[in-house]
Write a structure and sequence with these properties.
By secondary structure, the protein is an all-alpha fold. About 90% of the residues lie in helices and about 0% in strands.
Length: about 70
């Protein structure tokens, strides 16, 4: 995962936490739900990026194994 992706996801998570807290303070259930949804979206993006990185690493390992000459 690139640094830009991590920062963007962290920003979305932070904004979601702020929305959730503001909703809790003001009694605005819609804002609380929006905040939780933003946090869930950020977590899903992180998980997807981690999975993409794992697949890319596995592909690189396979390439290395097949390109080595014994």
């Amino acid at each position: 995962m690139g640094l830009g992706d991590k920062l963007g996801n962290a920003g979305q998570d932070g904004a979601g936490r702020a929305k959730e807290a503001a909703g809790a303070l003001t009694g605005n259930d819609d804002l609380k739900r929006e905040g939780k949804a933003d946090q869930a979206a950020a977590a899903a993006k992180d998980a997807l990026e981690d999975a993409k990185d794992a697949v890319a690493g596995a592909v690189d390992n396979l390439k290395d194994k097949f390109s080595k000459k014994d």
